[in-house]
Design goal:
It contains 7 helices and 12 strands. The protein is an alpha+beta fold and 295 residues long. The strands form 4 sheets. Strands 4-5-10-8-9 form a 5-stranded antiparallel sheet. Strands 1-3-2 form a 3-stranded parallel sheet, covered by helices on one side. 44% of the residues are buried.
């Protein structure tokens, strides 16, 4: 049996009773039909690099979109990728092809499909800078929906997909990015000063960023973590202790417990929220909050 511990970078989480890996509409509908017939909740997961799950078993349905691959429209410098593609693999491909736009986002964990949800950003760059459109599947209406940049309502580590009415309502299938062959990668970010020369090409910038990240952040494959935290989320003691039990001494879980916050109170409203929304039951028994990634 598979569990959240197998699907998240924290390496923590209980068993999942109904797990579906899907690649197309037929697979998605099959999973949704099963959930409907059993009256079970549905939770969509990517690479699990932005959640901290309870160690209690989850009796609902977990769906993971696993279709991978990408293609480059060389005429328009547009890079189209399936949502299940590893994010850094896509960045590597774009840099190898001399395209500017994604290089500063090197090394960020997760899938391509998760990138617009969080409007991931690093070293002075954000997804919204190069985002063109995405195709998603409406899980309730069972139909395809296209979102352009304006539709996504991007903000600082925010998008429409994090608003309560849209949270977990769509399964992102593919994303299209508008890149460019000319131009210069922004290396003015403080962490890159003295590491990258002004004349560095995009491959040199990518290598430098990967080096800086490796020095600043724990490798989640060695020490469970969810990367950087941006919005000061708090974690209740029970969930924090569970993370620490499985984290080597001295390694950072990224979570802090503050007794003066609602999340730390036995019945505080904040304790039931994940990223400002009510979290699925399996993510909140420990009364904690998830980090708002990314690096």
């Amino acid at each position: 049996p598979i569990g959240f511990s197998d699907l998240t970078t924290f390496g923590i989480g209980g068993r999942i009773e109904n797990y579906f890996e899907v690649e197309d509409k037929e697979g998605i509908d099959k999973a949704l039909d099963y959930a409907k017939s059993k009256k079970l909740p549905v939770f969509i997961i990517g690479d699990g690099s932005d959640i901290l799950a309870s160690e209690k078993d989850f009796k609902g349905v977990v769906i993971k979109y696993v279709r991978r691959g990408y293609e480059l429209d060389t005429k328009n410098n547009e890079l189209i990728s399936y949502a299940g593609t590893n994010w850094d693999d896509l960045v590597d491909f774009s840099v190898d092809n001399g395209l500017h736009g994604l290089g500063c986002l090197s090394g960020i964990p997760g899938t391509v499909g998760a990138s617009p949800i969080q409007n991931i950003g690093a070293y002075g760059a954000e997804i919204k800078d190069v985002f063109k459109s995405l195709k998603a599947y409406d899980l309730k209406k069972r139909k395809y929906v296209d979102f352009d940049k304006e539709d996504c309502k991007f903000g600082y580590r925010e998008s429409i997909f994090k608003i309560k009415e849209y949270w977990q309502k769509y399964l992102i299938l593919s994303v299209t990015f508008k890149l460019n062959k000319s131009g210069k990668t922004n290396i003015s970010y403080e962490s890159l000063k003295g590491v990258v020369d002004d004349g560095a090409d995009i491959m040199d910038v990518r290598k430098a960023i990967l080096k800086v990240r490796s020095e600043k952040l724990e490798n989640p494959k060695e020490h469970g973590n969810a990367g950087s935290f941006f919005q000061g989320h708090s974690c209740a003691m029970g969930l924090l202790c569970a993370a620490r039990r499985k984290t080597p001494h001295g390694a950072h879980t990224g979570a802090q417990w503050r007794p003066d916050t609602p999340a730390a109170q036995p019945h505080g409203k904040g304790s039931q929220y994940l990223r400002g929304r009510r979290a699925p039951h399996h993510l909140r028994p420990g009364r904690g909050q998830s980090p708002d990634r990314r690096d």
